[in-house]
Design brief:
Blueprint: E1 2-8, E2 13-20, E3 26-35, E4 46-51, E5 54-59, H1 65-78, E6 85-90, E7 101-102, H2 105-113, H3 122-135, E8 140-145, H4 155-158, H5 164-170, H6 179-193, E9 201-207, E10 212-218, E11 221-225, H7 247-256, H8 260-269, H9 272-277, H10 283-288, H11 295-320, E12 325-329, H12 330-335, H13 337-344, H14 356-361, E13 368-369, E14 378-381, H15 386-402
């Protein structure tokens, strides 16, 4: 049984083909990632493929996630790989989905109803689903949802301070996202520390090239997270503003005539690092910028990014009543030591003590410990494997059919 998994980030598309052996364990035969999809920056987009150790990098313009999916499907066809089912990460399932679902007519109807809830992610995920339906119409598909992990958040954290009639009528609540990533890194960090998840108070920082969030995790269960009803609030992200005063939206609409669609575009696609720096949505470009006129804006963007991150980490330490492990994951979390360094500055009050040498030496290929020896809090980088979590759901949903 071969499972193809697609994972749409806001500016990337990861995909893997898992071969499921007789023992039921999935092994990666093909790994690919399209980088900087539709990104405005100093470097162009490209796709990396790894087919059983045969690696290839192709640089070319990639404007949409559907284009990126088409490239992957063409690569699979050219190399004559058999696909038995296809799994997709879908960020926001609203109140419709509490668990993974096989793609059927009713599933598609509900997915379309969820498109406005995550305007950066949901539409592009559906576009990849549509591309797969067009090119592999006989292959079964299924969808997994990022919000499931956060279903354990208590009402005091997920409720909004609005009239109950409003929250109930419109299903307004904090849903939370990056749940597939958190599911994996909690288990992996616990394994590395040789402790059960039920023994750990953990703050996990999922820092991607597009979206980013922080989660407070007590004894393996999410108790709070920085994103909310949508993936917009929380941290300063690549093109998303994160937390702002909601009156700004009212003011822009009432005093300056902004339409709702214009505000969605502004807050989701033209704000964040791109809005502050004026030249790039990628934190790595901002860190390395030395150009005249850009450097000052880049420094401000980096300070705002790391200030917001450190503030969330600190608030979640307080909410948890202490901390055993601080975890960084995803591309920026494991790949950009400068961000980790800034995030851990002045955090000794809660036991967070970063070893600067270990931090700079950390690799994105494995779990790395970054705290100073004897530190009360473990600081880890944990490469996430969202695609593996999706594949395991595919085995549950399609395993008996394939057998």
């Amino acid at each position: 049984m071969n499972i193809l998994v697609f994972n749409c980030g806001s500016s990337s598309l990861s995909s893997k083909v898992f071969e499921v052996g007789a023992d039921g364990s999935p092994r990666v035969s093909l790994s690919s990632k399209a980088h900087r999809v539709g990104v405005t920056g100093t470097e162009g987009s490209f796709v990396e493929y790894d087919l059983r150790g045969d690696r290839q990098k192709v640089s070319l313009p990639i404007e949409t996630h559907r284009e990126a999916a088409r490239l992957v499907l063409e690569y699979i066809g050219d190399h004559k790989l058999t696909i038995d089912c296809i799994g997709h990460r879908f960020v926001h399932g609203g109140h419709y989905f509490k668990e993974s679902a096989v793609l059927e007519v009713d599933t598609l109807r509900k997915l379309r109803a969820c498109l406005p809830l995550a305007p950066i992610h949901n539409p592009v995920s559906l576009s990849v689903i549509d591309e797969c339906r067009d090119r592999m119409p006989r292959v079964g598909q299924y969808v997994t949802f990022d919000s499931a992990f956060h279903s354990t958040i208590p009402p005091r954290a997920y409720r909004y301070a609005l009239p109950k009639a409003i929250t109930k009528k419109f299903n307004f609540r904090k849903y939370g996202f990056h749940g597939l990533s958190y599911t994996y890194v909690v288990a992996e960090a616990s394994r590395f520390l040789e402790r059960e998840p039920r023994q750990l108070k953990m703050v996990a920082c999922h820092l991607g090239t597009g979206g980013s969030s922080v989660a407070a995790i007590r004894y393996g269960r999410s108790v709070d997270t920085s994103m909310g009803f949508s993936p917009l609030p929380g941290l300063v992200m690549s093109t998303r503003c994160g937390d702002i005063d909601p009156m700004l939206t009212v003011y822009l609409m009432a005093a300056h005539g902004y339409r709702p669609d214009e505000l969605i575009e502004l807050f989701n696609k033209r704000s964040g690092l791109l809005g502050v720096s004026g030249f790039s949505s990628d934190i790595r470009d901002i860190i390395s910028s030395t150009r005249q006129g850009e450097k000052e804006r880049a420094e401000l963007a980096l300070k705002m990014y790391t200030h917001r991150l450190r503030k969330y980490v600190g608030s979640y330490v307080a909410a948890l009543g202490g901390l055993d492990a601080l975890v960084f994951t995803d591309d920026i979390g494991v790949g950009t030591w400068q961000v980790r360094q800034k995030a851990c500055e002045h955090m000794e009050w809660c036991g967070v003590a970063l070893d600067s040498k270990l931090n700079q030496q950390a690799t994105g290929e494995r779990v790395c410990r970054l705290n100073v020896e004897g530190s009360r809090v473990a600081i880890l980088t944990v490469p996430t494997k969202e695609e593996l979590v999706i594949a395991l759901d595919g085995i549950k949903l399609f395993g008996e059919v394939a057998a």
